[in-house]
Specification:
This protein has helices spanning 46-57, 86-101, 124-158, 176-190, 225-232, 245-254, 261-264, 294-297, 302-313; strands spanning 4-13, 16-29, 73-79, 108-114, 166-173, 200-206, 233-240, 277-281. The chain is α/β, with parallel strands linked by helices and 322 residues long. It has a single domain (4-319), classed as 3-Layer(aba) Sandwich (Rossmann fold). An eight-stranded mixed β-sheet has the order 2-1-4-3-5-6-7-8, with helices on both faces. Helix 3 (124-158) packs across helix 4 (176-190) and helix 4 (176-190) crosses helix 5. The chain starts with a strand and ends in a 9-residue tail after the last helix.
Length: 322
C-alpha cells in the first residue's frame, strides 16, 4: 500500500503547491522525498483515492471483541496550522508518520490535509480568512467519509465481517483546528444535526488556535460549532500550554474575544464542557524549551508523542499521563 497520502485544495504550481485555494486534489506516494513534488505523480480522482485507501485497510485486523478496541488501527487525518508552506507541512507530516504510523506496530494510516496557508508569520489574518474559506472543502471530505461509515455500519449489522477495520480520527494543529471547527458545523448541518452519531473516534486538538469557550454549551444542544464537534466525535482532547508564544501572537492579533484554547485550556467559567471533551496541560513537557519552540514541540517531544498515541488508542484519560 502507499506509504504517504495527501489531500489538498492548494493551487498547483510548476514545482509544488501554492498558497491560493483551488479544487480538491488527491495524491499518494511511496517516495521518501516528499518535498520533491515530482515524487507525488499525477493527482488521483476522489474515487481512486478512496479505493486505494479502502484496499490498504483490508490488511488491518478485524476487531470484533469490544474489549480489544485499543488494538484497532486508525485512519488519521492530519490538518496543519497557519504559517505552513506546502513543503513545510509535508516535513511535519512525514515526521508524524515515522513516529506514530510506521512499521508493523504503527497506528495505521495518516493522511495530510494541506490547506492554503500563506507560510508567513506576518499573514495571520489572511490565513484565518483562508481557513474559513477552506472549511467547505474539508467538509466535503468529511461528508464522503460519513456516508461511507454510515453505510458500513448498516452492513455490519447483517454481517460482522463487513465492519470497518479502522477508526477515523483527526489530529489538528494550531489554526488547522479553526478549519476543522467550521467544517464540522457544515457536516453536522448537512446531516440534519444528528446527536451522538460519531464521525470521528478521536479528535486531538493540538495547540488549538480557537476560542477557549468553544464548548461552553456543555451538555445542552445550542447548534454551536462546539456542539457540532462534540456530537460528531467520540472523544475530544485539547492539548495546551501557557508557554505557547505563537498563540500569544494570535491573541494579540485578535484584540477581542476569548483566550486561545491551545494556550489556556477549556474555559470552565460558564460551566462544565461536554462529558466527552477534556483538556491536558502539556507545559511540564516543555520546560527545557524556549517559548518560541513550544507551539510545534508537541510533534518533536517523545513524551508528548507517546501521549498522542495513547489518546488515539482510546485509553481512558486517567491513564494517559503516567
Amino acid at each position: 500500500m502507499p506509504q504517504y497520502w495527501m489531500i489538498s485544495n492548494r493551487n498547483l504550481e510548476d514545482d509544488g503547491l501554492g498558497s491560493t485555494q483551488d479544487r480538491l486534489r488527491y495524491w499518494t506516494t511511496d517516495g521518501e522525498q516528499l518535498t520533491k513534488f515530482a515524487n507525488w505523480g499525477k493527482p488521483l480522482s476522489a474515487a481512486a483515492f478512496k479505493t486505494q485507501l479502502l484496499e490498504a485497510t483490508k490488511d488491518f485486523p478485524l476487531i470484533t471483541d469490544p474489549a480489544d478496541h485499543q488494538q484497532q488501527k486508525h485512519v488519521v487525518l492530519y490538518i496543519h496550522g497557519f504559517n505552513n508552506t506546502w513543503d513545510g507541512a509535508l516535513v511535519r507530516y512525514q515526521e508524524l508518520c515515522k513516529k506514530l504510523f510506521s512499521g508493523p506496530d504503527g497506528m495505521g494510516i495518516c493522511v495530510l490535509f494541506s490547506w492554503p496557508s500563506d507560510g508567513m508569520a506576518t499573514n495571520y489574518l489572511p490565513d484565518r480568512r483562508d481557513a474559513v474559506a477552506c472549511a467547505q472543502d474539508l467538509a466535503d471530505v468529511f461528508t464522503l467519509l460519513y456516508d461511507y461509515l454510515e453505510k458500513q455500519q448498516m452492513a455490519a449489522e447483517a454481517d460482522a465481517e463487513k465492519a470497518c477495520r479502522a477508526k477515523l480520527s483527526v489530529i489538528a494543529h494550531s489554526m488547522g483546528n479553526f478549519v476543522l471547527q467550521k467544517a464540522m458545523q457544515v457536516v453536522w448541518t448537512r446531516k440534519n444535526r444528528p446527536l451522538l452519531v460519531s464521525l470521528l473516534n478521536q479528535l486531538l486538538m493540538v495547540a488549538a488556535d480557537v476560542d477557549n469557550d468553544l464548548f461552553d454549551s456543555g451538555e445542552a444542544v445550542d447548534g454551536s460549532d462546539g456542539d457540532a464537534i462534540a456530537n460528531l466525535t467520540y472523544r475530544v482532547s485539547a492539548l495546551f500550554s501557557g508557554r505557547d508564544a505563537a498563540l500569544g501572537l494570535s491573541a494579540g492579533m485578535k484584540h477581542f474575544g476569548k483566550r486561545r484554547l491551545g494556550r489556556s485550556g477549556l474555559d470552565r467559567v460558564a460551566g462544565a464542557p461536554p462529558d466527552n471533551v477534556w483538556d491536558l496541560d502539556c507545559t511540564a513537557f516543555f520546560e527545557q524549551l524556549e517559548a518560541s519552540e513550544v507551539h510545534t514541540a508537541y510533534f518533536t517531544e517523545d513524551k508528548v508523542l507517546t501521549i498522542l498515541g495513547r489518546i488515539l488508542t482510546g485509553l481512558d484519560r486517567q491513564f494517559i499521563v503516567e
